[in-house]
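Sample A.
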Amino acid sequence: MKSPSDENNFKDESHQNVLLTQTVIETVGDGITLSGESGYFEIFNSKMQEITGYTRSEANSTVNFIDMLYPDYEERQKAYYFLNKLKKELIIEEHEITIRCKLGIKKTLLVTSKVIIYNQENYFLSAYRDITDRKKAEQNVLETSQRLTRHKEFTPLGYIERDERFVIIDWNYAAERIFGYTKEEAIGNNSIELLVPEGQKEDIYKIQELLLSQQGGKRSINKNITKDGKTIICSWYNTPLVNENGTTVGVASMVQNITERIEMIQELGNAKILAEQANKAKSSFLANISHELRTPLNGILGYASILINQENLTEKQKDSIEIIRRSGEHLLILINDILDLSKIEAGKMEILYKEFNLLSSLKSLIDNTQIRTEQKELKFTYTPHPKIPKIVFGDEIRLRQILINLLDNAIKYTSKGYIKFSIYPVKEKIRFIVKDTGIGIASEEINNIFNPFHRVKDNFKQIDGVGLGLSISQKLARLMNSEIEVKSKTDIGSKFWFDMDLPTVNSLINYEQLTTNDVIGYTNQKYQVLVVDDKQENRMVLKDILQTLDFSITEAIDGIDAIQKVKIKKPDIIFMDIKMPNVNGLEATKKIRKIPHLENTIIIAISANAFEYTIKESLEAGCNGFIPKPITIEKVIKEINKHLPIEWIYKNEKEISGKQKIESLNMKSNAHMFYKLCNLIEFGERSDIFKELDRIKNEEKDFLPFVDHVRKMVKNFQLISALKFIKDQIDAN
């Protein structure tokens, strides 16, 4: 028998074991339950309470606790299944279940259970581990893996995976399409031996070695061989595959067949070469045609500008020369239009902004329009607003070009009525308006009139021109941030207008200068000029222009001749044609610049090729300026002004002495002759007035200054002033 002390020791030991067991159950990281077949929980530890949200008393007081814990039918059936299995087999069973916690949150648990038989009753001891986060992570990994697999299989790029020996271990459908091998045929083969042409294998092995050593080779473009022996070009995107130790265990590659793209690039390259050749041929053609057309125009306009200033010409002769000059200038405008269209299309047209006198700049344009409208018996009115600024900042040449085209079209398409040209300020811009009573434009044609080579139809007569004026004008306007607008009605007329930003300039420069046609010489020492051109007619034009201005002229027939004569004559200024045989003008200029004491000689390049690159080449070669053919007195004087300190003598300085002579004339003795002239001015035609002036000039030599002065006023439509001048002279005598 046990003594009382032994009995007490046994109880203490049992109590300690119970305490130890309880401590283990409470401190273990899993939820622990012990329940009988009735469902009563003997043990429901704190971790289990944390997992489920229920206390032990709540679990035991609820009749259908298992239904609450497993509200999903499938999960509940799974729980019953494992419970029954435990009863039969009495073994530890590990399985996953999904429960719903007290707060309604679903959790996935890993359950390990065992049946314990005590006093011939079954008790279920279970451990519950919360694996919710792990299951989510596994699901994410699974979904990512599935997406990658789908991407790999359905991507248009070939996917090829190889081990460290370059043996293929994976191969998608796109790779099969590219190379022709099925997955079964490709896997197990050395990728280099299977896909690379014989001559390139060594290079590809080197690339693969770089990949395995993680030193490069991640992108390559190389030739490959397909199953049917065809050579293709592929772009390879390679990624080294490394294990947890950082060791490369293989290579994954995305492959794209770029054969068609390479061929397309080659075709585009060939097309680009052909386009460049065509563009070069076009530029060469334009340069040549420009040269060929400007060369004869050089003679026509050059001599027209010389002859128009001869004093011994009759009015009819002057009118004839004026027709020659205007016809030549019209042809020059057509040539320039074609060249300008080419420049605009090539994006090489430049807008050159500078200060200029707006109204003075338009004077010759207005005068020319007045003459042309008078010839067609049209009324022309020019109305500049009094608040138009005097000096503005803009591209004078391009503005004039736009207005010339608009006025030219108005004259062409108007056979009766009037043409009105108005200028007035609109906010901070200036509006230019050209209005006519011409044939008008049909509504269906309005949208096409600015297209190149489009011309408004006139059923009654042939219209001059090639249909470039409006197209170029609109393009020029847009280059200057403007837009030409139009309103028109058939048989009523048209109105064209545009607003141009021409900022006012408060300049101290005097822009009110006499026209170059008034220059007859200069007061300085006589300047030496060398004229260089291989064509005699071109030299003659320039020589005659310069001689009328009292320069001393030397001629040279090419670059070699120019270099020799420069050393002898030491000219003050050289007019150098660019296109010449033997040594051209640019080469001659470079050589002259190297001659001691002549390196600063003024050299003006002359060319019938008026492209910007020609001007640029000339200046880079050492020329000081550039004159495009055809050459006129105006262009020559303008260029000389830039480079020589010169003081011009003007024709009107002689006219002062002429007026003094007029005042000394005996007008009363010939009063009948001058009254007849007054009558013609008041009631007759201009042609009759000029005939009468020619008659007076021939019969009364002393009246030459008087005749010239009256002729000038009549020519400028100053008829009232002419009448007053004649009557004042008669009364004064």
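Sample B, a different protein:
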Amino acid sequence: MITRIRIQNYRSFVDAEVKLRPFSLVVGANGSGKSNLLRALQLAFRNHTPFERDFVSADPIPLEKHVNYQLEKTTIQGWFDDKLVRCTTDDKKSGDFIRASEPVWVYNIHPGSVSGIEDVIDSSTVKADGQGTVQVLESLKSGDREDLFDLVEANFKWYVPEVEKLSLRTVEKGKKQIQVREKSLKELLPATELSEGTRLILCILTIIHQEEPPPIILLEDIDRGLHPRLFEYMAPLMKDIAERHDINILATTHNPYLVDCFKDDKDAVIIVEKKDGASTLSTLADRLEGLDYDSVDPDDMPLGNLWFSGLVGGVPAKITRRPEK
């Protein structure tokens, strides 16, 4: 599990450092650098792609990524170029570090991809847009990890109480589609009939319950299409999954209600903000320490409201006038 990151000379980042929790929520204004943070982490785990393809500059830019992994009691340090070039460890098996240097996705889930018909092939990975959800569920259901399929189904029914059963139907030979049975309906519903938020929940649950989840899961706009009341259940689930699998989950959001779920773990909220054109990183806990308590008491205001108000930064600047025609 990564406990701290430092990004230098990458896109909007000049030199920024921040602590990571098992599940970290990333907030900030549009264009502040939230997506660049996720891409930088993706790049750190990508072991076959030259870095230069992701730089804005036409000239090569020296980039060192120094990543600390905390695996049980052993610290593994890696310096990455286009792949891992060195590591130090005590008695951990090399497989642990190989797993830690595997490529990861920045998930920007398109609900339409989740509801599609997919070829039935043995797959253990959901793709960046949500494709492969059917294949992963089928692999779990028909393989020797039906227990993971049952966990996906149980959590799915928890979040969407009207769902009675999750299954996969054969559309034609070698092709399947997700379907659900709702308590109030006799007919089985194909995933195309489900709301976008419901499909998003199912995809996220499938990603985090994969047989071998990636070492870090990066989710763009995790709240898209979800009812705010679901956040109080989703956040603890993400944290629990991350801790049990010894992985990191980072998710971006613009929703203050989701920030409210972190009142007991303020270090887990990362604020991305631009200063003098460069993206900076800090935790909500750090910002609260520097707050003027004569003007506001954080205990009297929900965290989401505190962030949304602009008192701790990470929000768009106020628009003072309309643009000229």
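Observation for Sample B: The domain at 2-104+214-309 is CATH 3.40.50 (Rossmann fold).
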